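Section 5: illustrative case.
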């Protein structure tokens, strides 16, 4: 006998009846029609942010053609031979571009990606690990591949459109928190936002690997386009079950990032998610990570804290946090990567 606990065979289901690690596409995550009455939309967004930290939007104003163009260029890029893609490979000095060795929580992800920022150049602190406040600044610049030649324009055009959408969403989120619509508009200045083209190739061991391991998004808000294959799973707040987000053509998936969790003093929470891969189909997705200027000190908003509800976080410098995260992608860490709970005030 091995060390395994012996289980009476009578308990064992035939394979087709075994519990799946995934609850099948529950209708849980709300779909919100942005063309409806604003008051109603604000209410729906507020309750989706509270209950799920995730929702989908339709009638969002991003032209289908803009999305079609980036989809096509994205597929053409990843179809190129590896040595071609590696011409725009990232390294410790060129942080943007192509790479296929990302780790999430120290396990390698089954994916390859291409990153570019909306602002070019993007300003970031020069010394991630140092104790200063990020006063010394360096820049990131985009690396565009020669092929396909249309990739750059398709990406830049898409970036402009999702940025408009995130501006709109931040107004609605502000209203849902009882704040003026323009409360977050200052954070669009000097932003460090970036877009990632994700390609998940078919995987021979989908039961053992993940496209992206469980994680929370560190920024303000994420606007994600996923294709029809599916694989994104969200951890349901009520019971910790992993729920698959059903692909909806032309919709965007929106999730609250860590910064909204801090700003709102946990009225809204950033929720864990992961990506499953499958052995037959490749999958593409495009997240836009809306992130503030590097010099932003992230802390609970004064309007949302008081004596009864004191700030749950100490202020942290966004640029330092972000560059520390990015630098860690190059190696396996012995310790946990930087997380907002490191700034949590204990109760
Ligand atoms: O591919 C997806 O559906 C989500 C990817 C993701 O969560 C991320 O890149 O942060
Ligand atoms: Fe994510």
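Designed sequence:
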């Amino acid at each position: 006998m091995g060390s395994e606990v012996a289980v009476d065979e009578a308990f064992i289901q035939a394979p087709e009846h075994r519990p799946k690690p995934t609850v099948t596409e529950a209708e849980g995550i709300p779909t919100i029609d942005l063309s409806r009455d604003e008051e109603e939309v604000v209410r729906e967004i507020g309750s989706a942010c509270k209950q799920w930290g995730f929702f989908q939007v339709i009638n969002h104003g991003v032209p289908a053609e803009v999305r079609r163009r980036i989809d096509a260029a994205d597929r053409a890029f990843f179809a190129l031979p590896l040595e071609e893609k590696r011409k725009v490979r990232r390294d410790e000095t060129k942080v943007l571009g192509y790479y296929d060795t990302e780790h999430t929580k120290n396990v390698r992800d089954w994916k390859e990606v291409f990153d570019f920022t909306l602002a070019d150049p993007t300003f970031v602190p020069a010394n991630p690990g140092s104790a200063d406040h990020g006063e010394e600044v360096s820049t990131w610049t985009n690396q565009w591949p020669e092929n396909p030649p249309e990739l750059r324009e398709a990406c830049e055009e898409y970036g402009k459109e999702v940025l408009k959408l995130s501006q709109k969403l931040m107004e609605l989120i502000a209203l849902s928190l009882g704040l003026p619509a323009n409360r977050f508009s200052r954070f669009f200045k000097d932003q460090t936002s970036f877009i990632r083209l994700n390609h998940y190739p078919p995987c021979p061991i989908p039961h053992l690997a993940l496209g992206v391991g469980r994680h929370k998004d560190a920024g303000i808000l994420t606007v994600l386009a996923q294709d029809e294959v599916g694989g994104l799973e969200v951890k349901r707040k009520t019971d910790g079950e992993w729920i698959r987000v059903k692909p909806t053509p032309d919709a965007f998936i929106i999730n609250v990032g860590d910064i909204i969790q801090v700003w709102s003093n946990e009225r809204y929470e950033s929720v864990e998610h992961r990506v499953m891969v499958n052995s037959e189909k490749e999958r593409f997705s495009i997240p836009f990570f809306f992130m503030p200027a590097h010099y932003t000190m992230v802390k609970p908003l004064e309007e949302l804290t008081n004596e009864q509800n004191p700030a749950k976080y100490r202020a942290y410098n966004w640029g330092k946090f972000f560059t520390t995260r990015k630098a860690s992608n190059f190696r396996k860490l012995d310790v946990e990567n930087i997380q907002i709970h490191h700034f949590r005030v204990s109760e």
